[in-house]
Amino acid sequence: MKYFWRVIYILTAILGTLMVIGILSADPESSGERSASDLPQFNSPEQIGYFKADNNNRVFTFNIDRRMPEADIRSHANSRMHTGGRITYVFYYYGDAPNPTTASNLDRALKITEDSDFRYSFMKMGNGQSSFSSHK
User: Fold this and answer.
1) How many domains does the chain have?
2) Tens digits of per-residue pLDDT, 83-122?
3) What angle do CA 78, 80, 83 make, to 5 degrees?
């Protein structure tokens, strides 16, 4: 039994030494958490077009980075300018977003956006209800 405790003592001493070496060699600046520079980077949506009708209905178009998380796109869409009682449309593209800015009316602005391959769409109704769709 004496031999057993001697082995345990030696193993504990070795383990303690390894822990001390690990602590001393650790980066003092490191907290073990990922920094912002370690996280995947992507560009913010780039607004390409904006149409606002006389009655305050709106159409936005954005180019987005393919790496942008869907939750971030949804949040971005929901934060676009909206007038109660009116409709806001937001379309996201992987490049080549159309520009409805010069459309003569809302129907034409929507036609311009829908004729292109948008990746995500968002619509906020006049009563504040909204829908978000992914179009793969």
Assistant:
1) 1
2) 999 999 999 999 899 999 999 999 999 999 988 899 999 9
3) 100
Name the 3-class secondary structure at 114. Answer: helix
Residue 7: inside a domain: no
CA–CA separation, 91 and 114 (whole Å) = 9
Residue 34 inside a domain? The answer is no
**67 versus 38: which is more confidently predicted?**
67
- Residue 57: exposure state from Cβ atoms within 10 A (0-12, 13-18, ≥19): buried
Q: Mean pLDDT in the chain? A: 84
Residue 50 is encoded by which pair of tokens?
């904006």
Element (H, E) at 131: strand 130-134
Return the closest-CA partner of residue 86 out of 47, 50, 53: 53
Does some domain include residue 6?
no
Residue 29 lies in a domain: no
Identify the domain containing residue 74 by its residue range: 45-134
Report pTM.
0.70
